[in-house]
Fold:
Amino acid sequence: METTRLIIVAVGGQGNLLASKVLGEAALISGVPVRMSEIHGMAQRGGVVESAIVFGDAESSIISDGEADILLGFEPAETLRALNRCSSRTMVITNTAPLPPFTVSIGKGEYPDVDLIKNLIRQKTGGLVAFDAMKLAREAGSPMSVNIVLVGALIRSEVLPFTKQDVMEAIKRRVKPAFLEMNLKAFELGYEGAGETVEA
Structure:
């Protein structure tokens, strides 16, 4: 089976790990081999949290620089920071709503312009889907569902070897019942929203 390598980058608290678990569960449901690894930064302080997921036949979950087939970014500056993982064939899907670090809020740093971030990504990669996932998460019922909005966008891109139905079933298995309806709505909003924002 062909191998697909996915990197997910997020700021601590954005739900990277749940998104990874949903995608891993979807792979198991559809019979796709999957290997996962996670790098936990200073998550409690808003640091970067990164997941690497390899779908298909592979002996390792390690994704070296330039090897990612897909980069899924929950925060635009973190997406830019992970650009070294990409190549000219990588598909990038990113949230455009910034979460500036503490240093910016106290005037010790400057947040990069989001349009500049998008242009830099376009120059290096094979395709970009960039949209305000936070807006859709709020529409779904909570900003905490931004992770599942982005999973919806990822599935809409049709770069992973399983179906929308597989992922919806995985969400049902992995999300607590109290939050299930909201997350299914977030998934649908991301799935539909991404179809309107694909850039070559």
